[in-house]
Amino acid sequence: MLQSFWDEFLASIKDKKKKNPIYFSILRDARPIEIKEDIVVLSCSSLGALKYLEKKREDIESLLTFYLHKKTTIDLVIAAGKQKEESPLLSFEPSKEDVFRKAGLRANYTFESFAVSSTNQIAFAAAQSVGKTPGSSYNPLFLYGGVGFGKTHLAQAIAHIVLEDDSKSGVLFCSGEAFMNELIESIREKTTPRFRKKFRTLKLIIVDDIQFIAGKQTVQEEFFHTFNSIVSAGGQVVLTSDRPPHEIRKLEDRLRSRFSGGLIVDIQQPDFELRTAILLIKAREKDIEIDIEVAKIIAEAVVDTRSLEGTLLSLYARSAAGDHSISLALVEDFFKDKSSEKKRKLSPQDIIKIVCSFYEVSQSQVKGASRKSTIVLARQVSMFLLRTELGLNLEEVAFLVKRKDHTTVLHAMNKIRNLTMKDVGFREELSSITAALSPST
Asked: Where is ATP bound in this sequence (predicted)?
């Protein structure tokens, strides 16, 4: 059955054979030995084949994701009979990026990239302490605050520290919604023992937006036992919410008691200084030149931290027509338009340009044939926003991104909707991009 799946997958990408027969041949020789959740384990005939396919990892994962209609990653191993023929040192070790991705982490959500001020310094110190000594400092660590205040960033930074120390630690970041969905799926598929083994044996579990499980009896029951199993084994629990435990309605008393048993930290709305620092960090991450005085003007005008990145991208898109620098005059004109409520008419090219700026890819790549994961995601987000923001029909969207027909657009719409539901980090990305589409944000 596994081989049948692989043969059908290879048949779907037969154009690879013409473009790169060596690549296709090595891929054809690989054997799928296990499919678990969103991971396909491939057995390679030799170390050379493994190393070759490792270089093609992003492309293979992108192709599998498209074929299976869900985010899919691969594990590469050497065929059992070949391991003795190779040196003992040839066992495959996943890269740090692979480890972080499997744990559900965003690469840039580290302590180094987190801006600290009086509004979040206690939470920052507590998170660092938990990262250094998980299971012994504050358990659970409960971070709460408004949207865009940095809860998710801090929580993931803890996971980065733990995995940097030991990449084989059982670490997982998920949303309350994702926990619930996976539990429901395990009940439907009669695989709850596997679900419990996955979650209850973790060294560190981070659940974002834990308030989502309130009022859902079976989910709360399962999380109660998950919580107890991890803590009793010396593991660490980190939770984030938009409110403290005592304000979460329909939360079971025993869970409320557990959540209140560690350290509860309120992250307050970022002040002017912190907003300026966040803006400068975002600009540096995206290689956008901006003077600190100009950044201060933006931070003074934009109080909502989620809108900071959107505003930055809007300004960058405007500057792209000139010398690519965000000048004081450009910022003044931008906010003058806002204050006088002069909204520019959004065009399809505006959307594609801003999405490309966010993902740091070119418009020609988005409209081209590349299957690189970042480019594919930028292409799908562009199609999604062209539909939702401008109301274009499927054929018009397909034409604008140079796709053959409307089925690709339908796939993109479903993919982005699913990612929005399941991936908190992606939801934040889409929010930032959407905010950049209108100067009135």
From this structure: 148, 150-152
Find the length of the chain. 441
Contact 435, 310 (CB under 8 A): yes
Q: Per-residue pLDDT tens, the chain, 441 aa: give them.
A: 677 788 888 888 877 666 677 787 888 888 888 887 788 888 887 877 888 888 888 889 888 888 888 888 898 888 765 544 444 444 456 677 778 888 888 888 999 989 888 889 999 999 999 999 999 889 999 999 988 888 999 999 999 999 988 888 899 999 999 999 999 999 998 999 999 999 999 999 999 999 999 999 999 999 999 999 999 999 999 999 989 999 999 999 999 999 999 999 999 888 888 999 989 988 888 888 888 888 998 988 887 777 788 888 888 877 765 556 788 888 888 777 665 544 456 789 889 999 998 888 899 999 998 888 889 999 999 999 998 888 888 888 999 999 888 888 988 998 898 887 777 778 878 888 887 776 544
Closest CA relative to residue 160, chosen from 181, 131, 123: 131
CB contact burial 405-432 (16+ within 10 A = b; e otherwise): eeebbeebbebbeebeebbbbbbbbbbb
pTM recorded for the entire structure:
0.58
Question: 322 among the known binding-site residues?
Answer: no
152 among the known binding-site residues? yes
**148 labeled binding residue:** yes
